[in-house]
Amino acid sequence: MFSPGVAVRDLLVASTSLHSSSRWWAVATSDSSVASLPLRRCDSLGACAACAGGFAEYACSWDAAEGACVELEAEKEWLVRRKEDCPEEEEETTTTVNQYVKQKGKS
Questions:
Q1: 75: CB partners within 8 A, 6+ apart
Q2: DSSP letters along the chain, please?
Q3: Are strands 68-71 and 60-63 parallel, antiparallel or unpaired?
Q4: Tens of pLDDT, residues 56-105
Q5: Residue 52 near residue 89, CB atoms below 8 Å
Q6: pTM to 2 decimals?
Q7: Neighbours of 73 (CB within 10 A)
Q8: How do residues 1-30 score in pLDDT, each as one tens digit?
C-alpha cells in the first residue's frame, strides 16, 4: 500500500454503497497519506460454492449463465447468493500417485 519503510498508523474496513451495491475496502493511513484496496476479489473464486459461501456470500454472487463469480448486485435477482442454491457441479476426480500406481499394477 505504501512505500517500503512507511509505517501504517491505522487500518480499517470501510463500506461504500452505490446503486444498492456495497463495496468493501481496506483503508490504511500513514503519517502523511491514505491508501485503500478493494477487499473482495469475486473473479478469483472459481466455483459457485466458493463464491456464494462464507464471507464471499455478502460480497459476491454466482452468475450461472456466465459460469463466473461476480460482485453482488441487488437488482440482478437471478444471481445465486447462497451456497445451498448452487447448481449441482460435476464432481472432480483426482487420482493420487498411490492410486495411480495401484491402478497400473492391476492392468
A1: 19, 20
A2: ---TTPPP-EEEEEEEEETTEEEEEEEEE-SS-EEEEES--GGG--SHHHHSSGGGGGTEEEETTTTEEEE--TT-TTSB-SGGGPPP-PPP----HHHHHHHHHH-
A3: antiparallel
A4: 656 788 998 888 988 877 678 888 988 898 987 644 444 455 555 566 66
A5: no
A6: 0.49
A7: 13
A8: 788 999 999 998 887 766 555 667 789 999
User: What gap in Å lies between CA 85 and CA 78, rounded to an integer?
Assistant: 11
| Backbone phi, psi, residue 105, to 5° | -70, -25
Q: Average per-residue pLDDT in the chain?
A: 77
List the one residue out of 26, 72, 66 whose CA is nearest residue 51: 72
**At residue 42, what are phi and psi to the nearest 5 degrees?**
-55, -40
CB count in 10 Å sphere of residue 76: 14
Cell of 25: 475496502
